Amino acid sequence: GQSLEQPSEVTAVEGAIVQINCTYQTSGFYGLSWYQQHDGGAPTFLSYNGLDGLEETGRFSSFLSRSDSYGYLLLQELQMKDSASYFCAVRALNSGNTPLVFGKGTRLSVIA
Amino acid sequence: EAGVAQSPRYKIIEKRQSVAFWCNPISGHATLYWYQQILGQGPKLLIQFQNNGVVDDSQLPKDRFSAERLKGVDSTLKIQPAKLEDSAVYLCASSRASGGFQETQYFGPGTRLLVL
Lengths: 112, 116
Hints:
Chain A is mainly β. Chain A has no helices and eleven strands. Chain A has strands at residues 3-5, 9-13, 18-25, 32-37, 44-49, 53-57, 60-65, 70-75, 84-91, 100-102, 106-111. In chain A, strands 2, 4, 5, 9, 10 and 11 form a six-stranded mixed β-sheet that branches. Chain A has a five-stranded antiparallel β-sheet with strand order 1-3-8-7-6, with no helix packed on it. Chain B has strands spanning 5-7, 10-13, 19-24, 31-37, 44-50, 53-56, 65-68, 75-79, 88-95, 106-107, 111-115. Chain B is mainly beta. Chain B is built from no helices and eleven strands. The N and C termini of chain B lie far apart (37 Å). The interface between A and B is medium-sized, with 23 and 23 residues.
């Protein structure tokens, strides 16, 4: 089976940097993704890491270490609109398919 | 490009009743997914279609849930009969091709179901 661990809540100040960690255990691994979901909204894709290292997209970066079964999402220059839930999700082997398996999410609150 | 459409947005039913949800994916997207998201948790895949064929329904409670995508475009998810624990948001998502590792999934706004 698969399991993912991420903090349930994080609070950070506007303009600051925040890191959301994710550790996972899977049977087979085909990459780590991050999704953002505002309250009442749809999850939206942020990033994907298939290989070790850092991927940067604007203010957001994501890192993966396959040997440590660990990744993180880094949000820089935080804005109030970044207040949302952030989910890590692994691609793992399941009955011949490689579905996305989501963590429980980290609720980020950005305060002034 | 229009996003993933879902209806209804909200539904309240009593336990043991039936309910159906509809999803229209992004035009041209071959792969369609239904997820269940219980409050405070991440989405959980219920079923994945590639065109009109089922790729993965290993987590679909088949005694009460069913889904179809007859013409390879829109899809319906049905619950019959509903239980209290089915209260959740049902999310539909689509992706362009084969659902490969790096492929982005685009989610619809979801249907919020409350079973009383």
